[in-house]
Amino acid sequence: MGISIAVLAAILLFSAIVVWVKSTLAEQVRASAWSESLGAKDETAGGCPPEFVTQIFAKKDREFVSALSSPQLRKLFEQERKSVALFWVQQTSAQIRVIIRQHLQASRGSRDLELAAEAGILLRYGGLQFLCSVLFVSIALAGPQGLQGLAVRADALAQRIREAQLGFHAAKEAGRIHGV
Amino acid sequence: MLSQIIWWSSIALEILLLVRAIRGRLGAHFPVFYGYIIFVLSQSFFRFYFYQWDPHLYSPVYWITEFLGVVAGGAVMFEICRVALTPYPGTARLARNLLAFGFVLACTNAAVAASNDPHRWIATCVNLERDVRIVQAVTILALVALFLLYAIPFGKNLRGILIGYGLFVGLSVIQLAFVAVMGNMTSKFLAYLHPVSYALALCVWVGHLWAYRPNPEPQRAFAFEQQYARVAAATRYRLRAARGYLEKAVHP
Predict the structure, then answer these.
(1) Does the distance separating the beta carbons of B173 and A6 come in below 8 Å?
(2) Distance in angstroms (rounded) separating the CA atoms of residues B178 and B192
(3) pTM above the 0.95 mark?
(4) Which of B231, B236, B240, B243 to mutate to test the interface with A (most CBs of A within 10 A)?
(5) Residues of A in contact with B166 (CB under 8 A)
(6) N or C: which end of chain A has fewer CB within 10 A?
(7) How far out from the chain centre does Cα B63 lie?
(8) ipTM for this prediction
């Protein structure tokens, strides 16, 4: 019992140190890329345009292709739609990652950092990433057609996140201009 | 013979580390760490004196200095947090609380173990040190996770101190766990593991602390970012919005 706990603690410690060292060594590259991404457009903003996303999950396209009675064409269509839908989920997951990264960057300098609030936010982030994984698997297994209404919501989600990020950048810029 | 080589090479590395600290004026930046190295160096000679001239006192002297070393190691961890997290007061407070909790836990654990059988205190020292080192390892693990999460920038010097000490504590935990069960004399490998782990840590320290490398300057914090309640509320809002749409996507 004692040995297993000790070995587990040591292995976890060594693994954490290896991950941390890799991360700190990559920090310089990431820091410059990060400041560029903050100053310019969001790194995930250039994904699917809204009207394109609306079409990904639309039933009528599939119905139209099915009506053509070409199994090959239908297979190709489904493959394409699935990969675009999966890309959308990945993009959403990346946007959530950007939100949390921005939060950690902003909050680490705060004087009044609250442990409970931080834990809550990180739990919420974990939950969202889990949800993205579930969605990814669902689309990969069943295809995007079963997820009606997704396109409109996806568009709104992307729009909201983009707006929130613009607000974040605006506040940051305002702080920079006023020299605070 | 091998133990002599390890012992003398450790002393040589400690002296080299101190010489480099004097030449590079590193001592002013990491006073606690170099205090720890001076303590370990003097401890080696102190133990050697008792081993040669007063062997019946060697065991209590060994364990007392060993535990003083554990406490000094804890102080090194506090110094790492102090230097790395000075520009991040909120994160520094979290780390200090974490360290204080680990320190209190280790001390309580030691006090309880010692009071259970005060007459066999020396005999239970291996178990005691193993438990204290496990608490220390878990505390370092939590700190590393904190540094990783908040992407705290580390300079080469400070990174080296943490890697070396983490390596030493991790290997000590493994060695003490096996010694507590099998005994020190059953395996030469186990007997050598503790001094070898310290020599490895010294090699890491010499490599990383050859010259002074300042910690990277953090990007200037803005007043907007320093208001945590605002930052947290904005993040919560954005995550809630993301979750709402994702949930609807799963259950349309």
Answers:
(1) yes
(2) 13
(3) no
(4) B231
(5) 13-14, 17
(6) N
(7) 19
(8) 0.78
